[in-house]
UniProtKB/TrEMBL annotation:
Its main location: membrane. Residues 1-166 form the SLC12A transporter C-terminal domain. Coiled coil: none annotated. It is a multi-pass membrane protein. InterPro entries: SLC12_C, SLC12A_fam. This is SLC12A transporter C-terminal domain-containing protein. GO terms for cellular component: membrane.
Amino acid sequence: GLTLLLPVLINSRSNWSETKLRIFCTASGVQELEKEHKGMTVLLSKFRIDYSDLVIISYANAAPKSKTKEWFDSLIRPFRQSGEGNHIKERELETFQYRTDRYLRLRELLQDHSSDSNLVVMTLPILRKGDFSAPLYMAWLDTLTANMPPFMLVRGNQTSVLTFYS
């Protein structure tokens, strides 16, 4: 809700009124693509949200490119050294390899679809405290936002901010 509401509110301001609202979301698989598209179209219609493009991405779980993995490895290299302080351990990287690959793939999709945007609004990835180190989490955030247009990461408090009456 909040991740969608903020761009709509920003778009209502005079200096942003000419911008196009493009909405991207992921689907579980190719078979869910049409169902997700229809469901999202209905939801946007109920809330009277004008958008120029709705893209349902079904290949978000594909493996990231080796170039992207190399970029990420160079990003975390300083935090993998042993010694004092907070570092990323090899075991932690192995445990969270799926999430890391997902964020790397999302980076590729963001670069493909949103590199020329005026503003990107995305839900902030939140995981349970203590499951991973701060350097790994910050590397994930950097992965999503590095060399991108202005980026707004949004996290609500699980309270609905959009209401409609039937």
